[in-house]
Structure formats: C-alpha cells, structure tokens
Amino acid sequence: MENDEEIRRSAPRRVDLIDNGGAVLACLADVHGNTAALDAVLASEDFAQADAVAFLGCTTTGPDPRGVLERCADLKMPVFHLAGNGERWVLELSSGVRPFEREVDEWLVAAHGDDGLATIGSWPGGLRVARPPAGGLRLCHGSPRSDVELLTTLTGDERLREATAEVGEAVVVHGHTHVQYRRDAVGKVFAGAGSVGLPYAAGPGARWALISDEVRLVVTPYDLDRAEAVIAATGYPSDAYMKTLRQPPSPEAKTAEAEALMFSN
Predict the structure, then answer these.
(1) What is the 3-state secondary structure (H, E, C) of the chain?
(2) What is the pLDDT of residues 195-240, one digit of tens each?
(3) Which of 115, 135, 200, 253 has the largest count of CB atoms under 10 Å?
(4) Cβ atoms < 10 Å from Cβ of 155
(5) How many CB atoms lie within 10 A of CB 52?
(6) What's the angle, vertex CA 11, arms to CA 255 and CA 174, rounded to 5?
(7) Looking at residues 118-138, what average pLDDT do you find?
C-alpha cells in the first residue's frame, strides 16, 4: 500500500452476523460487474445446491454494475453482501474523498446511479455466519482486518495470525486476490473463493465456493464471446478488462506478486 492512511481506511467498519437459513452457502467474490459470468453461476447445477448466497465484495465494480445488482435483487433465496475495496473506491470517488484520476472512475460512479451507490453504501465490511461449519465461519474481502490485504497459499503464519487476531471463527473465506485456493494454517481453514468475473486461473470459467461442513471450490464455464458482447454494449471504457478475461495472468505469478505487496488496491 502507498501509506498508513490507505491501510487505515481499508479496515472493515462493520461486521454483520447473518443467518444463512440452511446448510449450504454459496460464496461469490469479485464478480466485477461481469453479468455473463454471474448468469452462468446462478444457472448452474452447483449453485442450485445452495440455500443462500454471500457476495464477498468487488461485486459491482466493472462493466455492468446495475445489471449485477438487479440479478442479486431477483434471487429467490437469502442474499448477503459485504463491501470490498472496489465498492469503497466508488463511494470515495462519489463523495469527493478520492479524486477522479481515470476515465473509468467517473464512468463507474455514473453507472451505479444514486440508487446503486446507496445500495453498496449499506453493505458491511465483513460477515459472521450464524449457521456455519463447525468452529464458525468469517467472510471478508481481503482479510478480516483490511479489504486490501492479500492472503495466499504462501502467506506466512505470523501475518495470518495478525490478520485474524480478532477472529474467533475457524474458517475464513475471502476474495480480493482473484486466486482460488484452500489451506490449513494457524489452527484455521483459509479459502480464497477466487473471482467470478476476473479470475486469475489456468483456464476459463468463473471461480467461486460452496461452504457446508467443508469448503468446495467450484469452476463454472461460460461463454466469453457473450461476455465481450455485454461489455461492449455497456460502453465500459477499458480494453484491459476483456484482455484479462481472454489471457489471465497465472495464479502462480499473481500469488508471488501478492506476497511481495501484502496490501494492494
């Protein structure tokens, strides 16, 4: 991160306790406004097993913020959200805390609209689940202490203990790195749900997780040509988005980069 002020602003201000209403919770992180990928996940046989769904942040920051919010609102099951660094970024842009520096910044604020900004502004920074796996379940974006902390398969025990110092739950599921993984460390289970909208992975497909008494990592294939058509129709001002979908960086490279940075927007 650039400075301590950025890290301070990244700390979750509110952690909500939720009741997922059943035994299986779908965890979808980093949709990044990719409605084609989200549609595929929501229509999949794997998603049909879920009793509820939790979105782990950076849900709307991408080509189709309103489309994603509409799909979430239409789901016929309990739906929970937490805000990631993407939502915080858009809210800071809209309030003047952060200046517009790129064309996409102004576009994103306008694309959310007043209703969309109010919606993402109501989301907490973390979630505790009332009916979790044994030992409890904590959901976050980056880590329980920061929406921009990068946790990976290589994160050392000392930093993991620091990141979860206030966490009593035994299972921690997060997004932000866009890399899917599961590991046991410092007496907890850590899982990166991956990214629905912009995964860093060896092959195509939306990445997410199903949580019951275990963590199951899921890959859902979808049509990249359809995604490209949807993105073009929104007028999203960034060629890099589709390039990343077509040629994603490797999870190994992104894991190494994340460990070098530790905190990053």
Answers:
(1) CCCHHHHHHCCCCCEEEECCCCCCEEEECCCCCCHHHHHHHHCCCCHHHCCEEEECCCCCCCCCHHHHHHHHHHCCCCEEECCCHHHHHHHHHHHCCCCCCCHHHHHHHHHHHHHHHHHHHCCCCEEEECCCCCCCEEECCCECCECCECCCCCCCHHHHHHHCCCCCCCEEEECCCCCEEEEEECCEEEEEECCCCCCCCCCCCEEEEEECCCEEEEEECCCHHHHHHHHHHHCCCCHHHHHHHHCCCCHHHHHHHHHHHCECC
(2) 999 999 988 899 999 999 999 999 999 999 999 999 999 999 989 9
(3) 200
(4) 22
(5) 20
(6) 40
(7) 93
Whole-prediction pTM: 0.96
CATH number of the domain residue 42 falls in: 3.60.21.10
Residue (of 186, 154, 146) closest to 170 by Cα position: 186
Q: Is the pLDDT of residue 173 over 60?
A: yes
Tell me what pLDDT residue 1 has. 44
pLDDT class of 3 with cuts at 50, 70, 90: low
Neighbours of 182 (CB within 10 A): 17
**Total domain count for the chain?**
1
